[in-house]
Structures are given as structure tokens and as C-alpha cells.
Write a structure and sequence with these properties.
9 helices; about 65% helix; globular; mainly alpha; single chain; about 0% strand
């Protein structure tokens, strides 16, 4: 039950993340996501068999419930359609992680200012907060193709922009290596944000 519960939370959190990428692109002049039927919160339109189901289940089982992580099918967008050609891609990129952060913040404030909630409900909300904070922090890592690399791109010298773009072809391998071996590096940041949000 615990793995099913975690998979459901990951799926809906990742869907919100991808939806906000599409929403921001749409606001900035690119209707690619809307035209493809991806500007929706319907999880069926966003499920990726590997990223949304198999990988999270394998990570959860291999870490004995210590870690769960996944993603939804990326929402398509055309950067050349964006009104803001300099910072548009960065705005689209940061919209996804910020959606996860605001979900965590809203629920954290709920826990803080509504005392006396049922303990099972508190655990349920705390799990949602934690998973959304994982998605927020992890996706802001400056590793292509993660959102963080696109957020920092406009602020880098052209030479470094080229290096990041060249790294993207190996990006998923780097991401996988980080998930398996480097994840403990960001756990303190996730825990700090969790404690600050819920007021511990």
C-alpha cells in the first residue's frame, strides 16, 4: 500500500510540474502543449511508463522505502514561439519546480496553522510535502536536461551555454548516476526546507 500511495503522490505532483511548464509557455506565446492536448491536469495524458511507474517502484523497493522519485512525460514547447526570447525558456523551466514548491508551502502552512488534525492525515500531508520538495530541489540541479540547467542558461557566458547544451546528450545518464549515488547531497536541503515550512 505504501508504494502505491507514494506512486500516486509522485504522479500527481509530476503532472502539476509538467502542466505548469505548459501553462507558462502558453502564457508566453507558445501553444504547443495546448495543441498537443497536454495543457491538462489529467494524469493519463502525462504518464510515462518508465518515469512515472517502473523507475519510482524500483527505487522505492531497492532503497527499502527510503527514497522514491519519478517524473511525468515532458510537456513539449517550442522556444522560438516565446515572446521573451532571452529569458522565456528559463521562465518555462522554473514554472515546474515552483509549482511543486508552492504545493509544499501551502500544505506546510496547513499543518502549521491547523493543529489537532488526525495523525494519519498529518502523515499523508507530510508525505505530499516531502515528495514535492524532492521534485523542487532535484529539478533545480544544473544538470541537463533538468530544469535547473535551463534556468541558469541565460545568465551564463556563451561558452558555458554551449557546454551545457553539449552535455544534454549524456544528461539522462548523469541524472541516473546522481539519483543512485549523489542524492544524499541534496537530502539536507530537502529536510531543511521541510522543517522550515512545517515550523519544526
Amino acid at each position: 500500500m505504501s508504494i502505491i500511495f507514494s506512486l500516486i503522490i509522485i504522479l500527481f505532483s509530476a503532472v502539476m510540474h509538467e502542466y505548469m511548464h505548459g501553462w507558462m509557455a502558453d502564457r508566453l506565446g507558445d501553444s504547443t502543449a495546448r495543441d498537443a492536448g497536454r495543457l491538462t491536469l489529467n494524469p493519463i495524458n502525462h504518464i510515462d511508463l518508465w518515469g512515472s511507474i517502473l523507475m519510482p517502484a524500483l527505487i522505492f523497493i531497492s532503497t527499502q522505502g527510503g527514497l522514491v522519485f519519478g517524473y511525468a512525460k515532458p510537456v513539449p514547447f517550442n522556444p522560438y514561439n516565446l515572446k521573451d526570447q532571452k529569458y522565456g525558456v528559463a521562465k518555462v523551466a522554473i514554472a515546474g519546480p515552483l509549482a511543486n514548491f508552492f504545493v509544499a508551502l501551502f500544505l506546510g502552512l496547513l499543518l502549521r496553522f491547523l493543529p489537532g488534525l488526525d495523525s494519519n492525515l498529518v502523515m499523508f500531508i507530510a508525505t505530499i510535502i516531502q515528495i514535492n520538495l524532492v521534485l523542487f530541489v532535484f529539478n533545480l540541479l544544473p544538470i541537463p536536461p533538468l530544469d535547473g540547467s535551463k534556468v541558469i542558461m541565460p545568465f551564463l557566458p556563451y561558452v558555458w551555454q554551449e557546454k551545457l547544451l553539449n552535455m544534454e546528450q549524456y544528461g539522462m545518464y548523469i541524472v541516473l548516476i546522481f539519483v543512485l549515488f549523489g542524492f544524499p547531497l541534496i537530502v539536507p536541503i530537502i529536510n531543511l526546507l521541510f522543517n522550515l515550512i512545517i515550523g519544526i
